[in-house]
Write a structure and sequence with these properties.
With about 325 residues, this protein is of the alpha/beta class. It folds into two domains: about 200 residues, Rossmann fold (3-Layer(aba) Sandwich); about 120 residues, DNA Methylase, subunit A, domain 2 (DNA Methylase, Chain A, domain 2, Alpha-Beta Complex). Helix 1 packs across helix 10.
Amino acid sequence: MTVRALEFYCGIGGLHFALSRSSLGGTVVRAFDWDQCACRVYKANHSNIVTNVDISTLVAADLAALKADLWLLSPACQPYTILNPKAKDASDPRAQSFLHLIQNVLPELGSTNQHPQRLLVENVAGFETSTTRQILVSILHSLGYSTLELLLTPLQFGIPNSRLRYYLLAKKAPLDPDAIDHGSPTNSVVHDLRRYLDRGYDPQEFLVPDKILKKWGRLFDIVLPSSRRTCCFTRGYTQLVERSGSVLQNNEILDVQPEAVKILHPLGLRYFSPEELLRIFDFNSCDPRADLEPAFHWPDDISTKTKYRLIGNSVNIRVIQELIDYLFED
């Protein structure tokens, strides 16, 4: 029987892509997100199953009617991220919709015998020490779920991106924490960045502006096409400098000059393009033949700034795909 999934905080559909590429081959029957731009992008890639809604308004009766076996959830990370000095954990307004799902909706589904058999939750590293996590695990255990919590980065799956994330897997059956290591691609050989870069791009299009180089150039995390690591790309990429993602050094030879901007100019520093980030996040293939028909595409009127924001809020599909396969291994 085909597994039916609900996708909460769906964004641009990373969880959906991961499910469709898994060995399970399940179906997302409904997706939910409050962000109108994200919903438009989702609809362009996955048809009209997405609902633009405040998730805190969802009720158990409506979800029960969808008869879902699997919940996929990637709730807001701002209440838990170290990048937000004002993060308030469970008291943050952005945490309330997730707490509503866990504290109200999920227990109520028991009265209709419509508990999902499995759940997958993704969030930032730091969530594991939160009050929200304590509430989540406590309620899942009280409802008869077994849980497994992991901190994983795409580097462990051969992808040159150090995006450490928290994952929780839950199911109405025992979970073997040792089984995830058997046949797992973790600690694979990491590919270099050349594999992910655009072909035939305009070298001037994504150059870092001189005014940014002059003021903030010393803070950039600079990587080469031969590098096998990039920093975590966030929704603030190209708008922020520190801890928002790496920049690419096109030229590997530096002729040192006295002025800061002149020193940095020969490096050809540029931002990664949205399409390159889509490959790093595994939305689209690195195979040049596959790029002729990319799996993911943007609506025509989505700005570059919005693309960066939406990608930064998304998930690494390869990691999620592997976890879904493990969750259904039995």
